[in-house]
Structure formats: C-alpha cells, structure tokens
Design a protein that fits this description.
Elements lengths: L15 E3 L2 E5 L3 E5 L5 E5 L9 E5 L2 E5 L5 E3 L5 E3 L11 E3 L2 E6 L2 E6 L13 E7 L10 E3 L2 E5 L4 E6 L5 E6 L12 E3 L2 E5 L4 E5 L7 E6 L8 E3 L2 E5 L4 E5 L1
Antiparallel strand pairs: 1-2, 2-3, 3-4, 5-6, 6-7, 7-8, 9-10, 10-11, 11-12, 13-14, 14-15, 15-16, 17-18, 18-19, 19-20, 21-22, 22-23
Length: 243
Amino acid sequence: MTYVEGARGDHSASPLLLDGKLIVHLRDVVALDARNGDVLWRVKTDERHGSPVAAEIAGAAVLVTANGDIIRVSDGELIVKRQFRLGHNSPIVEAGTIYALEDGAVKAFQLPSSTELPADSKLELKWELSSTRANQLASPIVHNGLLYGVGERGILEVADVKTGKRIYRKRLDFGGGRVDASLCLAGELLFVSSTRGVTLVLKPGREFEQVTRNELEGFSSSLAFSENRMFARTPKHLICIKE
C-alpha cells in the first residue's frame, strides 16, 4: 500500500487516470503507477481545489493544473509554471487553447507546440476578458465556439472562444443560494445548479434561452449524466432522475 501525504485543510481536486498513471494533486502533483501504487514522480507546486486536466502537446500527454502549471506526464517535467491562478475551478483545454476563469478575468492561452521549452517560458496569451469579481467555483464549458462560465452569485457569462468578445451576461434567477456545481452539458442542453437545489436548464447559443426550471433538495456537487439518467448527490441522498 502506498501512502501519499496530502494537503492540510480542505481539498477537492479529483484524481486523473492517464497513460497508466493515477495523477493526484494534493500538496504536490503526484503520479502513481496504476498497477501497484508506486510513486513514479512528484512535482512541487501549490495545492488547489480545482482538478488537473489532460491535454496533448506534439503527441505527448501533459497535465494542465488549476495553478497554471503544465506537466509532462511521462516523466513529471514541469514545462511552464504559474501561468494563471484558479482558486476553486478547473481549467478547460479545447483545440489547443487553455481557458482559465480567474476571479475577475477570463483568459485564453495558446498551448505550446513542444514540451521542450527554455526555463521560465511563458504561454502566449490569446485574449483576456474582464468578468465579475465573484468567486469562480464552477468549472466552465466550451461548446460550439462559445465559452460558458458562471460565478458564485449566479451571473452567467458567455464569450466567443476565438475573439474573446463577450456575447452576453445574464444574472440567473435561482431564488437565492450560491453556484458551487460545475456547468454540465447533456442532450444539447446546459444545466446550471445552485446550492438551494434549483437547476436551470438552458439552450446553448448566442442568446439567452431558459428551457425549464427544476427543484430538488439543496446540493453543491456537480450533476452527472448517463444515457437518459441524471444523478444528483445531496448531503442526504443520491437522486436519480430518468427521462
């Protein structure tokens, strides 16, 4: 059995299974051999609540962390570090671009073309868009050329992924509560939930369109979908809703 020292205090970053390695971001980013739990490498970095995400550079698997680090999965080489700083949510990587929703700004960075970079290299900033200074707890979504993000106060912001131009901003009506859960896309619909248990179902696009509103008991976790079922985990129950 392998014991990996964790972070002090609260922690919520999810593990990631990639190239036969189980990646865990606790106090450091650690890669364990998925077969036996042996520590393969460890990268010193700041702990974060957001989860690392997988990407690829020139055929090589890499990690992008919520701390703005890019790490090569094969050997734990730190390619670039601290390009942005996400307090709670996770970055998104789509079509060679990293999208990071910081408190007060949305940033888009170009992934490098090689994993062999000089020391202290910086990512190319493609664009930056100011946003609300509320905490960004929910991870965003990219769909059909648009980036959707929502802050804890329920303000939905939609931007064009190519230009960084804001398409619209809308305060969602949850009747109170906070947005902790990440945005979810299922069946070509966008689901946004609040801690009061209210989920708004939206139609993605360049204009705001609310399809329906659903209410459950309060929860903070993200929704999960499988075929025609939706799952919500509350403090007391695991709820399954079938179409």
